[in-house]
Specification:
Keywords: DNA-binding, Transcription, Transcription regulation. It holds the Pfam family TetR_N. One of its GO terms (molecular function) is transcription cis-regulatory region binding. By secondary structure, the protein is mainly alpha-helical. The protein has a domain at about 65-200. It is built from 8 helices and no strands. It has helices spanning about 10-35, 40-50, 50-60, 60-85, 90-115, 130-150, 160-180, 185-205. α1 crosses α4 (about 60-85), α4 (about 60-85) runs parallel beside α6 (about 130-150) and α6 (about 130-150) runs antiparallel to α7 (about 160-180). The protein starts with 8 loop residues before the first helix and ends with a helix.
Length: about 210
Amino acid sequence: MTNVALLPVGKRERTKVQNRQAILDAARAVFSELGYETATVRDIIRRTGLAAGTFYNYYRSKEEVFAALSDDGARRFAPILKGLRENLRDFEAFVHEAIHAYFQFLAQEQRSWIEKRPPGEPYPHVLGETPEMAAVYAEVRTVIEAALAARQGPAADVAYMTAASIAIARDVGEKMLERRPIDTEAAADFAVTMILRGLRGLAQPKD
């Protein structure tokens, strides 16, 4: 008969949930500070305080952790976009509301993991795209493409317009997260103005 003490099923399940969340929180911080390409599994494990073996019980690589964070970010932001789609008045209103919601989402994600950092640890600058950012871009891209395809926006190349809009939101969002304090309203207003003025220019007839 074994002498190993087994945890009650309920406690084991709670421990699994806590360990998985600790890994995801650590990965979010590491990816944000170092960038995805630079970050390693060792960096993530070091931030969690868990043993390496515990990490590999849940994920086999940083790619799997990134995918898990992406899925989580998309899952949580999707209802926000769905609500905007259902109440869409026109294309410009959607762009305005979607960009503001997106920047607020990014800022909240940033605050949520910073609050979990040890007291006194230096405040980081964001050097790379987080998984949530990548996932949200994909969600926004899908909605913008659908709106443009339904002729709710100016007639122009859908792929180019979508790529340009996402690029503006991505780059402005990254700069926003580097600043202290984070000003979502100013960043969103700037991005929306750039996007809408650019689209209006495309819609104007050429001489």
